[in-house]
Amino acid sequence: MNGDQIFNSINNIQIIIKNHKEEIEKLDQEIGDGDHIFNILRGLDEILNLKEELLDKPVNHIFKQLGMKIMTTVGGSSGALFATLLIGMSKKYSSDLSDLNNLSEMFFEGVQSMKKRGKADVGEKTMLDVLIPVSNNLIELQNETDFEKVANNINNVAKDGMLSTKDIIATKGRASFLGERAKGHIDPGARSSQLAIEAICNQFINK
Amino acid sequence: MNGDQIFNSINNIQIIIKNHKEEIEKLDQEIGDGDHIFNILRGLDEILNLKEELLDKPVNHIFKQLGMKIMTTVGGSSGALFATLLIGMSKKYSSDLSDLNNLSEMFFEGVQSMKKRGKADVGEKTMLDVLIPVSNNLIELQNETDFEKVANNINNVAKDGMLSTKDIIATKGRASFLGERAKGHIDPGARSSQLAIEAICNQFINK
Amino acid sequence: MKKFVNEVENILTESLTGFGKAHSDIIDVRLSPDFVFRKNKSQNDKVALISGGGSGHEPLHGGFVGYGMLDAACPGQVFSAPTPDQMEAAANEVHKNKGILFIVKNYSGDIMNFEMGADMIEHENQTIIVNDDVAVEDSTFTTGRRGVAGTMIVEKTVGSLAETGALLEDCKIFGDHVNKMTASMGVAFTSCTVPAAGKPTFELSNDEMEFGVGIHGEPGRRREKIKSANQLTDEILETILEDLKPDNNQEVLLHVNGFGGTPLMELYLLFECGQKLLEKKNIKVSRSLVGNYTTSLEMAGGSFTVTKLDADIAKHWDSAVHTPALRWKM
Amino acid sequence: MKKFVNEVENILTESLTGFGKAHSDIIDVRLSPDFVFRKNKSQNDKVALISGGGSGHEPLHGGFVGYGMLDAACPGQVFSAPTPDQMEAAANEVHKNKGILFIVKNYSGDIMNFEMGADMIEHENQTIIVNDDVAVEDSTFTTGRRGVAGTMIVEKTVGSLAETGALLEDCKIFGDHVNKMTASMGVAFTSCTVPAAGKPTFELSNDEMEFGVGIHGEPGRRREKIKSANQLTDEILETILEDLKPDNNQEVLLHVNGFGGTPLMELYLLFECGQKLLEKKNIKVSRSLVGNYTTSLEMAGGSFTVTKLDADIAKHWDSAVHTPALRWKM
Ligand SMILES: Nc1ncnc2c1ncn2[C@@H]1O[C@H](COP(=O)(O)OP(=O)(O)O)[C@@H](O)[C@H]1O
Ligand SMILES: Nc1ncnc2c1ncn2[C@@H]1O[C@H](COP(=O)(O)OP(=O)(O)O)[C@@H](O)[C@H]1O
Ligand SMILES: [Mg+2]
Ligand SMILES: [Mg+2]
Ligand SMILES: [Mg+2]
Ligand SMILES: [Mg+2]
Fold first, then answer.
1. ipTM confidence
2. Architecture of domain C8-181+317-328
3. Which member of B30, B31, B75 has the closest CB to residue C83?
4. pLDDT bucket at C42, cuts 50 / 70 / 90
5. pTM over 0.90
6. Distance from the CA of C53 to the CA of which of A176, B64, C105, D84 falls in 20 to 30 A?
């Protein structure tokens, strides 16, 4: 893992999010307050601005700085949560491990921090319905050598998690204020998280 | 002239104004503030409520009371002006004169008061472009015995006056704030005044 | 039409009654004829200030009744001048043996009805006609300019002078002076909806604005494509400054007034644009007021008002005031 | 989208700068990280009150910084919670050796960001979570109710207590108490338009309203046909009273809050409806506040807030306050 790869992934995430801008915007307008897409886009812009500065820095330093940037520029629930994810991830990097091992450990740690920060778990109609299953799945697959298989797996888990939010009555986040009325709507944070994961997975899938 | 005839005329005026509600509303929205039709309708409602109380009263008393009612319930330019007209008219009634003579004298006096109140004259894109020519014409015709002829005459003078406001650049009233932009629009007060006159004239025209 | 309303005919009465109750510590409301007046009359004799006009511009004028400003206000129907009996009743209620000063915005309807009201009272009285709107060309042949957001600045400053026990004559002279030192101009993005009409007074397409609009949604100088806040500020303040011809280093009061439907966030942004432009021209904004003070129901848009300050105007602007909508130092 | 704006990205910075200039006598604005704070710090040590939240609710919170209310406010992007570094910077600027009290509306984003901010500072601190919106059912499993227009009542009363030199502990207890005594609910007639989005957040047809709407235009209890002001008042106040369970002859503060796009005339009419209904139920409205205090950009609509008064709350409501948006007795 290195700066180039990290920023390459962020680039791909930005592309996929921009391609789904209207859809994400609409999701948060329906069951939230409509700012989610702008929070995400602002965050991506801000961290891509750090590319030159961070490209050659150690991986844990990069994650920490990305997290700090998101923390200080995004705001909202997603700002706090994604900052927590990245800062959590930065703590677990070890130069002795393979990329997939590193990613699994780091991601697991990051998602654990998010759960604490959001006081939430699977089944509450949030981005954690995508991120928790993905982090569990990654741990299971951390010694797999076929990256395309891992990517396909993760991709599907993320999609399932995202779709599962559709029929949940939210208990966390803004959608929770809606009760029954939020049913039938996909959670915006789940959708943007799933898309980010899809962007990364696509890097490993030979289409 | 008696109370019955007066209230009958007011009734007819109300009918014709209601039939042109949308048109008058639009005229004041275009070059004014849109309240003219509501001022007029409120005034007509209020004075028709006085019917029972005033029916048998002397003509000058009736006009005075109608004027007072309009003065205290209508507001806006048209409230002040029509109140001034009626109160002015009330001062000139004489039981020695014929109806047409009375009407001519009373109306002339009323319009003179309006000119003073509004500090306005013909050619300023106001209701006076209808009322001044009408009052002059009435004076000329005050000894005519063919009422239908008088009515037809007056009717035409009122219409010409009303139409003339279309191409005047206003110097009085709200439309004056518009300068060139008011050109091409008929003055709302001129239209409502002309319609009122038409309603009365129609009583004497055998159609 | 979507409004908080029961029967449209009762909107004014119910609203005025609520207004009276919400501010029962300082004002009272009398109905039929309608007027708002100060509850705790000043101990000392003073010139009584009475203003009024069509409703729909709230907090103007009822919101400015109280210590240091108006003694009474006469609200007409929405956008229709009040009737003379309202002025008569208000005058009889609040006069204090030093005469009555009417403050009237320059519209035919207001002028005529206030004149008729003045004819009906026995107290000595004078009238200040406010005509601060530079959107409309002034000319000796026409009705002249409209009275808009500058009116409350006249009411505040003359109200303060009247509180000192000044003579009617002096209040009138000072009010005319403040009016001459004041100029305003505004722009609308959307129409307002008069309750009785139930639909918008005018239509603007999605990229149009009415430049130089009146506070009743009357047309202004021109209808044109919307522009950036900086461009609008430039055009409006240029026109205002042409009229006011301020000296170098002139101190001014800069008032950004919202027409009702524009968020505070934008009004403060507009203030920032205005302040920066005036600074560049060596004009010192030493007093400021930002908010919805002279509204046009729910119309989106706003206006700039600039008042050139001298020591007297500044002093009377700064002095204590206690009304429903403007309150400081007490 | 028709707004007073230059570049959409700069709307907050320009607006905050203008806000700082317009009220430079009492507050100051720091940018990057953004916060508003009192200019003339109190002489005495006091608990420092810091609030904040997404922008678009002006005058909340920046408009309530000043004597008797907040020490600082942290504005986020429009409808997005502020970032922790804003809270850290504000805390470091305004702390006065008696600890920091954060006042936070109950939204995930605000709570998380304020928590992170609190983690970053060394000063002793506590947090009051305001959750007065009874439109949304409360439950131990969910995030619970939203914080809405009642927040400024908490800020006013706790602000007053803090000014007396009270301990952090006592301010926290009192704030929680005021929050518990307060309940709100609102209705929207139109949507707001987030500047970055450039189009309305939701669509309501000509005869529809969103009953129990949130202050970000989030959906409420239900979407339904518009009703008369009296009917709306009945439904809203019933829900509020069910929650507050006032005693017979209970004294209350009745706050009618406009969401930004509704004329004052209608808000006072709503106040009249509310006051009459409460009177019928033997509840005494002894304090009132009517106006646009907790807005949702240009959204048309409004809310009722009722606070049950005891001697303490009444005293701290009445006490002197001097902020850009609320000022009395000084
Ligand atoms: N307590 C929480 N735990 C986990 N995720 C949350 C929580 N609250 C909100 N979220 C996520 O954040 C998303 C909304 O993010 P965003 O719109 O940026 O912030 P906000 O809700 O503050 O407006 C939701 O769709 C949901 O996925
Ligand atoms: N000074 C004036 N002299 C004569 N007529 C006037 C004058 N000012 C206004 N008007 C008439 O009044 C009409 C408008 O009446 P209305 O809409 O009821 O009052 P307002 O203009 O005060 O809103 C105008 O169309 C015009 O005919
Ligand atoms: Mg959101
Ligand atoms: Mg009119
Ligand atoms: Mg009018
Ligand atoms: Mg948000």
1. 0.95
2. 3-Layer(aba) Sandwich (3.40)
3. B75
4. low
5. yes
6. B64
